[in-house]
Amino acid sequence: MKTNTFFNIKLITLFSFIWLFASCTDLDEVVLDEVLGNNASNPAGALAAAYDRLGDGTFVDHGGVFSLQEYTTDEAILPTRGSDWGDGGKWRDMHEFTWKSDNAIVGDNWNKLTNGITRSLTAIQSVEESSIPEKKLFLAEAKALLAYYMYTTLDLYGQVPYRDPMNPNAPLQILKADTQIDKLITDVEALIPDLAPMGEQQTHNGRFTKEAAYGFLSTMYLNRAVFKDRYNATSSFNFSEPAVSGGGTDMDRVIYYTSLLINSGKYSLESDYFKNFARDNDKGKELIFAISQKIDYIRNGSNSFAYVCMERNQRASAANRGTNAACTTPEFYATWDDNHDDPRFQQHYRYADGTWFMNDGTDVSVPATDIVPKSANLPWFHFNRGIQAGLQYGPILLPSGSLEMVGGRIKVSPLFMEKSTTTRMDFTPSLTFKNPAQAVFAQNEINQGARVFKYEFDPEGGNGNSNVDIPLFRLGGIYTMRAEAYFRKGSNGLAMEDLNKLRTSRKRESLYASAPGKALTSLDATQLYKEIGFELYWELYRRPQMIRFGKFDLPGTAKAASQPFRRVFPIPQSTIDVTKEFKQNQGYN
Questions:
Q1: Of 16, 141, 194, 289, which has the fewest Cβ atoms less than 10 A away?
Q2: What predicted TM-score, i.e. pTM, was given to this entire model?
Q3: β-strand pairing of 440-441 with 80-81
Q4: Residue 530, CA atoms < 13 Å, CB-side half-sphere
Q5: Distance between CA 486 and CA 492 in Å, rounded?
Q6: Could you tell me if 270 and 244 are in contact, meaning their C-beta atoms sit under 8 angstroms apart?
Q7: CA 75/CA 327 separation, integer angstroms
Q8: How is residue 58 annotated by DSSP?
Q9: Around Cβ 52, how many Cβ atoms within 10 Å?
Q10: pLDDT digits (tens, 9 = 90+) for 438-452
Q11: Neighbours of 397 (CB within 10 A)
């Protein structure tokens, strides 16, 4: 975490901790603490370990929760590309809706999330048994993290394990989404008095503050109707149900909690949308709750969201490259039709001397004055941000191991695919699979797919590490939640006002005279659905959104129409085999 207080965390030890699930999981427990020593039972260390689970692959890696929340949607797909990314079909399963209870991604994410529950319960026990001055605050944060891991598990798997942390002989309980959602809401609401406002008691956007709780409660209320009626065949969810507490309906509570954040004065929208996902975003104006990342050579942040889309011959420096994996689908790309001038769609990079990287064949060279941090003076090449389609250009790596230069500058050339050297790097928005039901490309087709360069590629620590903090709740998303709640209550004008706030607050780069986004003049459900995608693409929100809007079951690229049982994933068979309390989810027996 990026703080100078004792709550900074560093990896110090590994130990097996299995009291919650017995042999359900073989994940090692990672305990982190910088100052207080390596006593795993100390409250700060236990709480830090619970936080660390957020960033240790779970919410920051494309194979983590992202793969369940995005690869199952129209926003993202990871095809088999020639000889790459076959991996037994586990990635294609996500988009083709063919996953089973033995799918490795389904099992790995279950283990990560339930391990987060274990760590949170350990933190609760450790804090409860302590007499530290921060007891009330730490206990509230530990319980909030527990609720967050449990909510995510219920969202994805429909069931979650729980055991009373203060009773070593307590039986294992299996809680279900339709009944537990109300309990989670009331539990988090009860924590608000003990959570610190952000910036007080040494808190920051990497810790669970009052404001993080408001964002979390908004999310739970927005999706409560789905949790209560997951298998509704017509997706006719009751968003007008009376709220758990506070009066009004679920949507009224979404409006209440989002308004607390919007009106707090603590956050403001970035005019440069892509600053939210930049290398130096740790003090970003929109970040309410984020996963703090840094390259510290102990627990390095993950570069996965940036790395996963870049082609192997796209190089930020002579020491970096992409991996040519994921892309977006034609369906999502088409939602941007007539909206390519939106500041959130794409952004050109400008170097300090005024050179713009146009990526259109007109570039000759860019300055070599930007240097990769902590490198041996390696020139840093910056790719454009946002959704990238069409022919691609950039530096070429010479056999000598350095980038090709011209006149002391980085030369820009047409790029070809690394594993199909005669195939031009052309990120086609279309995806042409030989078998439309299977996301498989031949070797000479591996260039296909518009790519998402939303998160800045950080070249400092190799391909895999990053200083980019990963937002979980940010102000832009809060506006979309309030807009959706207004719309579901019939207040279309107020919904459009919030969406236009997002549109017009964002500005294009100075290449386009810093033009703001264009305001909407009308709003219907179709446009609302698109607007949420424009603001939140690749931020782990698409699957719940598609379910709420009745889109998740529909056919699409490499996906046939699916049944409602696919709205949740199966409990891993390995868990059921050793924990008889679990019963498999509907449709997976």
A1: 16
A2: 0.94
A3: parallel
A4: 19
A5: 7
A6: no
A7: 8
A8: I
A9: 22
A10: 999 999 999 999 999
A11: 17
